[in-house]
């Protein structure tokens, strides 16, 4: 725990057997109380490996529910076991677990209720091997989102993020997409609800075993991001009433 706050790490997993153990072994268990992994109908032995290395909570989807659907299951479980600080970490070792102490400190000291590990602050993305087209797309989409949503983040597209339990209880993440745009919908909800977001610089690694979406899925994701931003702006103007911004349980 951190000052009496329960710290939970959640791992959205899909075919992660090659990198899961390396990721898990670097988690700082002097701070982290429990780990939850959700296997989204992997074709490899991700779930079996997770149990064998000692992960406390291993959840398995019998059919693939998508990246967003995986996170919904994880956050529901994290709240059910009393998570006060919930950190979403990809088990593909693209992001380092060594940043967890800094992230826990920021939320645990009530500096920010949400923390993003940004690959764009500094030069971590390109140095880590991010493909140039993805870097350019990231910068364009972030610029557009900051302008339309009236926020100021270095990037909206990192998969390494953490939330206070209060944030997860407040926002209606269950109404979000089950696909990759879930992440952006969630940030839109958080900003709309008035929660402040902190960022830390994060190195990243691109390698063969790390998860990545192909060009077609990237285009679909990018269009989804544009849609979320426009819906957010229309909601602010009172010209739309999206279920994304309804109170949880409404």
Structural summary, described in words:
The protein has 250 residues and is an alpha/beta fold. Helix content is 40%, strand content 14%. It has a single domain, classed as Spore Coat Polysaccharide Biosynthesis Protein SpsA, Chain A (Alpha-Beta Complex). It has 9 helices and 7 strands; from the N terminus they run βαβαβαβαβααβααβα. Strands 3-2-1-4-6-5-7 form a 7-stranded mixed beta sheet, with helices on both faces. Strand 1, helix 1 and strand 2 form a beta-alpha-beta unit. The longest helix has 23 residues. The radius of gyration is 17 Å and the shape is globular.
Q: What would you call the quaternary organization?
A: single chain
Largest sheet properties: 7 strands, mixed
Number of E-state strands: 7
Could you give the order of strands across the largest sheet? 3-2-1-4-6-5-7
Count of helices?
9
Query: Which homologous superfamily in CATH is the superfamily?
Result: Spore Coat Polysaccharide Biosynthesis Protein SpsA, Chain A
Q: Which class do the helix and strand fractions yield?
A: alpha/beta
N-to-C series of helices and strands? EHEHEHEHEHHEHHEH
